[in-house]
Automatic annotation (TrEMBL):
UniProt biased composition (Basic and acidic residues): 21-30
Gene3D superfamilies according to UniProt: 1.10.720.10
Organism of derivation: Maribacter cobaltidurans
Record-annotated Rho termination factor-like N-terminal domain positions: 54-80
Name listed for the protein in its UniProt record: Rho termination factor N-terminal domain-containing protein
Lineage of source species: Bacteria, Pseudomonadati, Bacteroidota, Flavobacteriia, Flavobacteriales
Highest taxon of the lineage: Bacteria
UniProt region (Disordered), positions on chain: 21-55
SUPFAM superfamilies: Rho N-terminal domain-like (SSF68912)
Length: 83
């Protein structure tokens, strides 16, 4: 598959390119650039500490963090921040 076809699936191309240039892996950059809030600013998302364990689990599920079902709230926060 040509490179352009593969990258056409990225919703926010500018953000993707900026993240790759910062050293993010292509997979992580694409995941971030394809998120529903891609490119939006304003810091309106609540801090992970303010979210319930269930909310954190759902977010971890959304981005496919392995082992999430056995994690406590603190571990989920760490995994989300480091993924």
């Amino acid at each position: 598959m040509p490179k352009d076809k593969k990258r056409s699936r990225v919703k926010n191309e500018d953000q993707y390119e900026a993240l790759v240039e910062k050293g993010y892996s292509k997979e992580k950059a694409a995941r971030i650039a394809n998120s529903p809030n891609s490119g939006k600013k304003g810091g309106k998302a609540s801090n992970y500490e303010e979210r319930s364990k269930k909310e954190l689990y759902e977010k971890a599920k959304e981005i496919d963090i392995e082992g999430r079902s056995k994690m406590n709230k603190k571990e989920l926060i760490s995994a989300l921040r480091n993924n």
